[in-house]
Amino acid sequence: MRFGCCGSLVAAGPDRTGVEIAEQIAALGYDYIELPLAEMMALSDGDFAALRRQVAASGLRCETCNNFFPASLRLTGAEADPGRIRAYYTRALERAAQLGAEVIVFGSAGAKRVPDGFDHAAAWRQVVEVTRAAGEAAAAHGITIAIEPVRRPDCNIVNTFAEGVRLAQEVGLGNVRVLVDFYHMVCEKESPDILRRYGAEYLCHVHFSCPAIPEIDGVRDPARISGLYEGELDRRGWWRTYPSSPDEWDYGAFVRAVKDCGYDGRVSLEAHAPAFARQAGEALDVLHTLFG
């Protein structure tokens, strides 16, 4: 397998891309960097060219991008504008292709969140349509769209791997598949066995982290944080972080399911890491121990 880091949740620079970690993770032995597309879309042409040079100088490639759509661009509800959406993903895919990205992660919780009072079935159809349209455009660049299920407190549509598979099936394109994020799977209490059922056909990318769910009365229950948005979890110190030991959490069932479905692709760390250099080194050791 290949191991990388997402820049977005550890970003310290003003552009919020996290590109500044590229040289560090290359030196540590990571295989690639995963950068946020929405943040890169906010860059001028000159600043984007500088980012590309910085990635190239590290010796790594930006093989994957997350944060496909910004929260400000509505994908569901009455305010969703197909013309604006098309213009955005057309240009975003061009930038991703210039970076050499092969996979774009489509979580975009804020953009696809269903507005209060809007028909959920209608919103689902909107998500199917935009995923299909973006997938068709991505195919021209040789890019795969990885649908990312996100836990319910952060988004109210496409929350489980099973729902991601349903979306991919309805889209019906070979380059639209599904990502599994260990943190979101834990929070949704979804059994990793779903990967054995659908992973061989649909799994195309993995996000990994240590769920910092608090232990109360000897139990770590995701239900205890089910009403808290990620910003509040971060404030309380209960948000996901980089793994520091293969024994700190019951990772085994998830890792076995990933391997059992035949997956041998990329695994990206996506979490906060306040002591980045130390934590990134520890986390890479954990990834090698768990995934081989």
TrEMBL record:
Query: Which InterPro entries does its entry note?
Result: IolE/XylAMocC-like (IPR050312), Xyl_isomerase-like_sf (IPR036237), Xyl_isomerase-like_TIM-brl (IPR013022)
Q: Name one GO molecular function term.
A: isomerase activity
Q: What keywords appear on the UniProt entry?
A: Isomerase
Domain of life, per UniProt, equals: Bacteria
**Stretches assigned to the Xylose isomerase-like TIM barrel domain:** 23-287
Name listed for the protein in its UniProt record: Sugar phosphate isomerase/epimerase
Q: Can you name the source organism?
A: Candidatus Faecalibacterium faecipullorum
